[in-house]
């Protein structure tokens, strides 16, 4: 059974890269085994003409070693292909590869009874760095470090155990050992060098491709972030964007806020002054929303729409929404104090707050998503903000909002006073609404 892909986009990307790297590494290992097997047959073909060095066992040992290397690569390829591969198996693969090479090198030294100082004459020594290059394809530093340490330990083991001495006369040994540095043998070394370079090029290409995919994914998320509220960036980074696009129904607290008489105020201002005025208002809304954990869905001219309960709903969403409303009223009072010092016209706001079920999601494609909160609860909150004009109060809250916040307007000492049961504009059903005591526009 194939391992389940992680939900997180970056983790899934890395897992896919790991699987692809293991597949590539297994193919490279099989190619190495085939190339070296052909080379061994060419290099050791002269063994029949040499009487002093019997290379029959060396040839058989080389065939067995390269056969094990080939079938180990084939086994990994099949495990990846049929979804049986697991990340921990990379350590097993590295161990098998190094063990096969160390065993082959020891056997060659033993069969030819050569001292360890001559181990570099065997082309198989060149496979060690080649396998390290193959291991680098995984882009897994700990596996690469393990392969390096195991290689060093293996070569140290050869140095300790491969201390045999030759019975041949020096001149005879050197004459017959010349074959290990002949054109075929050096051709094998050149082939391994070329394979190593090709593996490193492949690793660079794979790393570049992974980088390009990561950059493309980051760019896509940044494009989405341009059109979604900044508070939803954690949703994008945790790869829940599909859930956001699917949408859901959630109980959220909704707040509409608007500047009263802004049209007349704007007509008396210069464009630069109006820009600064609207900017100052939005800065106060943004500061209060962040303070109480609200998500600004959008600014609408001189107004704003704020949601409490995103990206996940909490039990205190309504309470935080009311706290935001109180903070905004206090901020507007402070702002008016500053404006009074410059003889500027005081600012009045209207705020409507409601708690109810709404559809929350993002509509659009991957290039542009528009965050949307829809439903009757949104209409009610907008109508409550509109009702502040009729009742000449800065804040109107529904009973649902007060109840969800744990505030009882009927209790003694409650700061809320009833505005009666009213049928809001555009709605047939009447509902109880409240405002803060002693509040007035």
Description:
The chain is built from 14 helices and eight strands. With 441 residues, it is an alpha+beta fold. The chain folds into two domains: 9-222, no CATH class; 240-436, Alpha-Beta Plaits (2-Layer Sandwich). Strands 1, 2, 3, 4, 5, 6, 7 and 8 form an eight-stranded mixed beta sheet that branches. A hairpin with a 6-residue loop joins strand 7 and strand 8 (430-436). The protein starts with 8 loop residues before the first helix and ends in a 5-residue tail after the last strand. GO terms for molecular function: adenylate cyclase activity. Its EC number is 4.6.1.1. One of its GO terms (biological process) is intracellular signal transduction.
Low-confidence blocks of residues: 47-53
N-to-C terminal Cα separation, in Å? 67 Å
The count of β-strands is 8
Q: What would you call the shape? A: rod-shaped
In short:
It is a multi-pass membrane protein. The chain has 441 residues and is of the alpha+beta class.
State the main characteristics.
441 residues; alpha+beta; Alpha-Beta Plaits; 2 domains; 8-stranded mixed sheet; transmembrane; Nucleotide_cyclase; membrane
């Amino acid at each position: 059974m194939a391992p389940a892909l992680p939900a997180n986009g970056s983790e899934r990307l890395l897992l896919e890269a790991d699987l692809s790297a293991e597949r590539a590494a297994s193919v490279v290992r099989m190619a190495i085994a085939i190339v070296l097997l052909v080379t061994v047959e060419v290099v050791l073909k002269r063994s029949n003409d040499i009487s002093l060095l019997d290379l029959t066992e060396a040839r058989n040992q080389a065939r067995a070693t390269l056969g094990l290397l080939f079938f180990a690569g084939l086994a990994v390829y099949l495990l990846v292909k049929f979804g049986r591969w697991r990340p921990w198996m990379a350590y097993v693969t590295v161990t098998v590869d190094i063990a096969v090479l160390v065993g082959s090198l020891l056997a060659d030294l033993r069969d030819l009874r050569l001292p360890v100082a001559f181990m570099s004459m065997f082309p198989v020594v060149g496979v060690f760095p080649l396998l390290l290059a193959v291991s680098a394809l995984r882009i897994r530093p700990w596996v690469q470090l393990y392969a390096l340490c195991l290689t060093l330990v293996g070569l140290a083991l050869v140095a300790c155990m491969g201390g045999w001495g030759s019975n041949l006369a020096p001149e005879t040994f050197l004459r017959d050992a010349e074959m290990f540095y002949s054109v075929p043998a050096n051709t094998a070394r050149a082939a391994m060098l070329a394979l190593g370079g090709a593996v490193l090029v492949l690793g660079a290409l794979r790393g570049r491709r992974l980088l390009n995919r990561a950059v493309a994914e980051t760019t896509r998320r940044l494009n989405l972030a341009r059109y979604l509220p900044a508070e939803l960036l954690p949703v994008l980074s945790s790869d829940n964007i599909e859930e956001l696009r699917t949408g859901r129904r959630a109980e959220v607290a909704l707040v509409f806020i608007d500047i009263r008489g802004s049209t007349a105020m704007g007509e008396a201002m210069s464009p630069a002054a109006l820009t600064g005025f609207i900017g100052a208002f939005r800065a106060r809304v943004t500061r209060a929303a962040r303070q109480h954990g609200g998500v600004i869905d959008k600014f609408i001219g001189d107004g704003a729409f704020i949601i409490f309960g995103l990206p996940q709903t909490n039990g205190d969403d309504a309470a935080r929404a009311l706290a935001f409303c109180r903070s905004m009223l206090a901020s507007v009072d402070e702002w008016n104090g500053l404006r009074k010092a410059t003889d500027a016209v005081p600012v009045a706001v209207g705020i409507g707050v409601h708690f109810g079920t709404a559809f929350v999601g993002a509509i659009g494609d991957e290039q542009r998503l528009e965050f949307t909160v829809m439903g009757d609860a949104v209409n009610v909150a907008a109508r409550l903000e509109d009702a502040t004009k009729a009742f000449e109060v800065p804040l109107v809250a529904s009973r649902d909002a007060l109840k969800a916040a744990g505030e009882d307007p009927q209790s003694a000492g409650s700061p809320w006073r009833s505005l009666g049961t009213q049928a809001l504009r555009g709605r047939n059903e009447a509902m109880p609404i409240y405002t803060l005591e002693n509040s007035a526009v």
